[in-house]
Specification:
Length: about 375
């Protein structure tokens, strides 16, 4: 089945879909930095850099080769994040509406949308509710549901909100139990990164630092699942800290928090807290706080973060540490994504509505991108005013 990834970022969501047996034909995102490595990780997926608020369903269909069976993506979450500023006029919040506008215009067999739990809060539900009205008469919708990547076998606690819709002509509605039965025991930090200890530096390749696992040993099942060919991987260069910072980091116990930088020390037998992205240059270039290695007086490396999130060692991010962490922090864990797509695959019966290029399915009021923005904005303003 042919899928399209909206707001693709570095491709964690796409990787989960691919591992579940789907073909991701096209991906869309506005950020050329966060998608830097997408073409090399997904050489058979067409990447389109552009503003999704200005993209029409016909464009999505054309990029995918004329047929789209599924649309998935995680619209920007900054306007809804419980730890952010939650500005009511953040224009990125309107992209939730554009996600569902494109679903309405294309009418794939299913859709999956991911976001932070704040999208389900009382001051954000007006935006979500207005967007869902565009498609609720054609789709059986599950959610919003909060799911944690750790419950599906990831080594990080990452609770996110998901909405899943199955077209009423294409299969039985999906239920929470269909996904919940794919839960797995949580993985520990030790299972995820312990085998990276004493990795040997190999050299530079296309701007990336390359490493090799020095002693193959007997890796955990989790590590074995993610190991690359020949034990090679990239992105393990450590961050340089001053002597004062190193001395301070040495005093932080497992599970404790650095009193100055608020870095949390990982515990070998626990899970990593949610890795966050930080902001781009347009928002001040703020680096999100990174956790400390369980034993060493330093923050974790890019590869350690990738392992904790569920990315395989063959996956590349960005030559710089900062942008790599932005990519990982913005991503959906491939582990939970795979489980969701496997559950969807079992619900579909192979029938899909006609979404060939010769004619888009359409129904209901004729919404343009501009009118949708205005509608969602009015709804949000009414809610903020107590209407």
């Amino acid at each position: 089945m042919t899928l399209v990834d909206l707001f693709s970022g570095c491709g964690g969501f796409s990787l989960g879909a691919q591992e579940a047996g789907f073909r991701v034909a096209a991906a869309f995102d506005i950020d050329p930095v966060l998608t830097f490595a997408f073409p090399s990780n997904f050489p058979h997926t067409r990447l389109v850099i552009g503003d999704i608020s200005k993209i029409h369903g016909d464009t999505v269909l054309a990029a995918a080769g004329g047929r789209v069976d599924g649309i998935f993506g995680g619209p920007p979450c900054q306007g809804f994040s419980m730890i952010g500023r939650r500005l009511p006029d953040d224009p990125r919040s309107l992209l939730v509406g554009h996600f569902f506008r494109i679903v309405r215009e294309v009418q794939p067999a299913f859709f999956v949308m991911e976001n932070v739990r704040g999208l389900g809060s009382s001051d954000s539900r007006a935006i979500l509710g207005s967007a869902l009205k565009l498609i609720e008469d054609r789709y059986a919708i599950l959610g919003p549901e909060l799911l944690d990547a750790a419950d599906f076998g990831a080594a990080t606690r990452r609770q996110r909100l998901f909405l899943i819709g199955i077209h009423k002509d294409c299969g039985e509605p999906i239920e929470l139990n269909d996904i919940a039965r794919l839960k797995r025991p949580v993985a520990t930090v030790r299972a995820a990164i312990a085998d990276l200890e004493n990795a040997a530096y190999v050299g530079e390749e296309a701007g990336f630092d390359v490493w090799r696992i020095a002693r193959s040993g007997r890796p955990s099942e989790y590590a074995r699942m993610l190991r690359g060919p020949g034990g090679k991987f990239t992105g393990h260069r450590t961050t340089e800290h001053s002597g004062k910072v190193i001395r301070r980091f040495r005093t932080v116990p497992p599970g404790g928090t650095d009193v100055v930088g608020r870095h949390q020390r990982l515990d070998w037998v626990g899970q990593c807290p949610t890795l966050r992205a930080g902001t781009g240059a347009d928002r001040g270039s703020y680096q999100s706080v990174r956790p400390l290695h369980p034993e060493e007086p330093r923050v974790i490396t890019v590869r350690e973060a990738a392992r904790l999130q569920g990315f395989p060692d063959a996956y590349r991010f960005h030559p710089t540490i900062w942008h790599s962490f932005r990519m990982i922090g913005n991503s959906v864990s491939p582990i939970i994504a795979r489980a969701i797509f496997l559950a969807i695959a079992e619900r579909l019966d192979g029938r899909a509505p006609s979404t060939e290029k010769k004619g888009l399915a359409s129904y209901g009021p004729s919404y343009t991108a501009t009118s949708l923005v205005a509608n969602v904005s009015r709804q949000g303003q009414k809610h903020i005013a107590g209407g």
